[in-house]
Amino acid sequence: MENSNFLGKKFVLLRTIEGLKEGLSPAKISKKYNIPKTTIQYYIDGLRKKGYIKKVDYGTWEIIKEIPKEVRKHHHYTIGEKPQKRGVVKNKKKQIRGHAFIWKIRFFPKNIDWIRRLERYQIPYKLISNNKVARIIFKNRKIWLSAKGMTIYEPIDYLGSSSFETKGRAVFEMDQIIKDLGRKLQINLSNYKFTTSREHYGIIKNELAKQYNDKGEKLYIKSKDGDLWLWIDNSHSLQEIENNEVKINRKIQEWYNDHKKHNFEVTPTFVLNQFSENNRQLLAYAEQNKEHLALIQEYRKESVQNRKFMNKMLKAVKDLKK
What we know:
Elements: H1 4-7, H2 13-21, H3 26-33, H4 37-49, E1 53-57, E2 60-63, H5 69-73, E3 96-107, H6 114-120, E4 126-128, E5 133-138, E6 141-146, E7 149-153, E8 158-160, H7 163-185, E9 192-203, H8 207-214, E10 219-222, E11 228-232, E12 241-243, H9 246-261, H10 268-321
Helix pairs in contact: 2-3, 3-4
């Protein structure tokens, strides 16, 4: 699993806030989440300058002002910068938004008695699905606990320079949620496998999306079986083209970058004109080949006639000598 250094300083702001709420010192927050202490101190200094926290003792901080929702939930920007809608980073390298992750987790060993532990550690829950599944809210996530494992609905958007980096950030956060719940319930949940039953990716500030959004139009592309796999609807005002497959996102990026490299001159009209010109040249070449073939055949006939004539002359010379 990736550590916090891979994710960058901006990603760990939420962990810093959570640690302060728990009364942890910067050193303990650093140890708990495997985040460099200097990074933790960076955010503490920023929160202090903004008037959200104050120091009450050595290594102890108190939250004295409600921290905005944008800071608590969408922690993708540096303290002190103006927060953007849906946690968008003012960074041209961060072009991909990953969201709507639904994680399916399977633990080993299986058959965890969730109800007993939830009641023991006083975590509110609601039974659903014929009382077979416990639903809880933990770290602002809706989590379903069943005999097979758990399902986590991730509400946060993640940004990165590629869809793979974006998913890496989301996976790191998912792992932290699982470990935090395990510590809360006093159970080791580190041995697990996970899959995603849903995940969406979008290229933000996309020119094609901007053209559609400026006209108030939408674009929905479906596969033959009717599944939606690419769309533009400006649901988050990000000028974003979205899809639900991580590999497609990268291919779309490469497709646009390849067009940009050729100044978008390789249009369908350009390709068709090139095909037409190539066909014209091939037909002209074929006509030339016909002419060349006719000349070759004529040359061969003349060669045969010349050989016959030379043979007659040689024979005549021989007859004279006799």
